[in-house]
Design a protein that fits this description.
Elements (H helix, E strand, L loop, with lengths): L4 E4 L4 E7 L6 E8 L2 E7 L1 H21 L25 E11 L4 E8 L18 E6 L1 H16 L17 E2 L1 H4 L3 E2 L1
Parallel strand pairs: 1-7, 4-5
Antiparallel strand pairs: 2-3, 3-4, 5-6, 6-7, 8-9
Helix pairs in contact: 1-2
C-alpha cells in the first residue's frame, strides 16, 4: 500500500509554478480542493515534459471524442500562481494522464520519487511510493500546460549553440568560442 495516497476529485484549482531567483528556482505542481492543498516538488524538465504531454494528450482526446468542445487555451496568470504556504508533500518521480469519458475529467496521476537506498523492512512489506490523483477539467489541464511552458521559460536564457543555461556573469560555451567565457 502506498505511504501516501490522495485523491482530489475534482480539483478546484491545479497549477505548476516556480519560486526563487533565476537559476535557483524550485518548481512545483499544486492542486486544491476546498481547504485541502497538495503541493509537490518537480524539476523544470518535468514541468516542460508535462506541458508538452498535456497538449499531445488533449489532441488525442479530441481525436477519439470529436464531439467534445475544444479545451480553452485561455488562462489568467494571476490565478495560476502557487498558493502559499508552500509545504511540499513529496518530490515527484513520474506523471501519468488518463481520461474519464463519463465525467469529462482528466486524471493526473503523480508518483513519489523515493531514494534508491530505502531499507527493506524485515518484518513486513516495504511501503510503496506515495501517489496523488488530481481529477480536473480539460480546460484546467490546458491552462496548467500553457502556464507550465510560460513559467519554465522565465528562467535563465538558453545558449543557442550548446543548449545550456547562460549565467548573468557569463557563459562557458565550447561550441561558441572555444571554451572561453563570454557575455
Amino acid at each position: 500500500m502506498p505511504r501516501i495516497e490522495i485523491e482530489l476529485s475534482p480539483v478546484d484549482h491545479i497549477t505548476t509554478d516556480a519560486i526563487g531567483a533565476k537559476g535557483k528556482r524550485v518548481f512545483y505542481l499544486q492542486g486544491t480542493k476546498g481547504v485541502q492543498v497538495v503541493t509537490l516538488i518537480a524539476e523544470k524538465f518535468q514541468i516542460q515534459a508535462l506541458a508538452a504531454g498535456v497538449e499531445q494528450f488533449l489532441v488525442e482526446v479530441a481525436e477519439r471524442f470529436p464531439d467534445l468542445p475544444e479545451a480553452s487555451p485561455e488562462y489568467n496568470e494571476d490565478e495560476m500562481r502557487i498558493i502559499p504556504p508552500v509545504d511540499p508533500l513529496f518530490r515527484l518521480a513520474n506523471i501519468g494522464l488518463g481520461y474519464s469519458v463519463e465525467e469529462d475529467w482528466v486524471i493526473l496521476v503523480v508518483h513519489e520519487l523515493t531514494p534508491e537506498n530505502i531499507e527493506v523492512v524485515e518484518d513486513g512489506p516495504a511501503e510503496e511510493p506515495g501517489v496523488v490523483r488530481f481529477f480536473c477539467t480539460r480546460d484546467q489541464l490546458r491552462a496548467l500546460g500553457r502556464w507550465g511552458v510560460e513559467s519554465a521559460q522565465r528562467g535563465r536564457p538558453i545558449c543557442t549553440q550548446c543548449g545550456q543555461p547562460e549565467e548573468p556573469e557569463g557563459h562557458f560555451c565550447v561550441k561558441k568560442n572555444g571554451g572561453h567565457k563570454h557575455d
